[in-house]
Design goal:
The structure is a single chain. By secondary structure, the chain is of the alpha+beta class. The protein has two domains: 94 residues; 57 residues, no CATH class. The protein is 52% helix and 19% strand. The strands form two sheets. A three-stranded antiparallel β-sheet has the order 1-2-5. It has a two-stranded antiparallel ribbon with strand order 3-4. A hairpin with a 3-residue loop joins strand 1 and strand 2. Helix 1 packs across helix 3.
Amino acid sequence: MMKTVSYRLLAEIERLSPSSQKDWFRGYLQEILESDRPYYVKTDYIALSFIELEHRINYLGQEIKSLTALRKKLQQARALGLEIAARILDDYGIEKMEGTVISSLTITPESTKAKEILHIKDPDKVMALGYVKFSVDEAAVKKALRHEEMRKELAPYIEVERTEEHHPPKLRINKKRIHEATVVEPDDILDAA
């Protein structure tokens, strides 16, 4: 955890925003400069307030990176866990399990999704045919490929690559519409079973 120092000036800086009353901050800064304290104390106070703010910003940046990495890891773990759970239920021949708190567990079927990747071999020729933005308008080309005559017109200048995305079966949790305040502890459920 980050050790922080709280200066009143730091708090005043943190309150600043484009819509805030900047006059209040100006006034406080003027009070500091006009005080009877030695100039080096004033210098340190002002500088340390901004340095502490910089430390907080850097700390938050590091925390955001850590949390982003953790979020990605947890999303991957959840996806893998749902796939494994679906396979286990399938191994036992279970298609659906009903619960009392959760409506049911079901298995989404395995699927494959085809995807087209467009490669423009001759961008100048494709743009000369009218498929232009500031570069080749790929959305318009993809739309044109649905029509046979336009496909023939574009064929010498483009190449379409087909790929497939494989989606393994996953466990789907079908939640009941329960009040958010209802909290069920996992141990309570397992002890009751």
